[in-house]
Amino acid sequence: xxxxxxxxxxxxxxxxxxxxxxxxxxxxxxxxxxxxxxxxxxxxxxxxxxxxxxxxxxxxxxxxxxxxxxxxxxxxxxxxxxxxxxxxxxxxxxxxxxxxxxxxxxxxxxxxxxxxxxxxxxxxxxxxxxxxxxxxxxxxxxxxxxxxxxxxxxxxxxxxxxxxxxxxxxxxxxxxxxxxxxxxxxxxxxxxxxxxxxxxxxxxxxxxxxxxxxxxxxxxxxxxxxxxxxxxxxxxxxxxxxxxxxxxxxxxxxxxxxxxxxxxxxxxxxxxxxxxxxxxxxxxxxxxxxxxxxxxxxxxxxxxxxxxxxxxxxxxxxxxxxxxxxxxxxxxxxxxxxxxxxxxxxxxxxxxxxxxxxxxxxxxxxxxxx
Length: 370
Description:
The protein is built from four helices and 23 strands.
């Protein structure tokens, strides 16, 4: 019994020793290196850039008053459509005291002159009716009388305009009524009833009563880096996407490239503008942030290969091509346009060639490319 137990112990030790040897032998053997492989194919490739900017109406106008005054009534509000010539607000005039005093003085003087001219006319007419004065003398007095009446009317109209902002003879053209100068959408009315407003002059820009824009004619306004502006030409198509409108994009045509750069965060950039084509199905608001995707270069029906398969040495570019025997051969290639992931191969490869990619690192039974 003891002898049998001894044999069993020796057998277990032998099995353990042999198993350890086999395990160490297997792990000491070098593993075969495996690589990801890619097949060269024919396809299209393009180099694009994305420009950030915003959507703006091409024609946006600030409506300003023609006189100084106080807003007495507002007939419109932001978001409403308005036609050219339509009244947006009404003003109550605040007359300048010096101008008002001068206008009142002018009226009084005109009344005095008119009264004297009327007396002269009545006296001259009585003499003319009796044929005591010539027709020429009568005509001169009549002319002076008519001129005095016109001066009185002009002085009265001037006083009414200064005092009330409108004269009785021209009520339809009142400067107290603020009218839109274009047809479009009212984007903003920054004033309220009771606010004082001033007209534009050489000293200031005047008060904006309303901002009106034609929202059917929109443009994209953005800036592009100086390293890419050389690839742009007017008329190039652009794809516009608006962050505030999910899954929405529209086309645009580049129509303006600034001839002068502006510095932005230490980089020279050029302003660009593009006419946006709206399909009318979505409401696009002024000031929306937008991105414009521009195709700077493209190549169609060319050999395409992953750029990650390339190796560089000096001025040469190489790939490893798999042969019929399964071995890889280092092959020089000439490349062209790249989109950052794939690159055009102009020579050195043919359609269907298999090239070596990244090394596969195995973890357990699984593996991944490095």
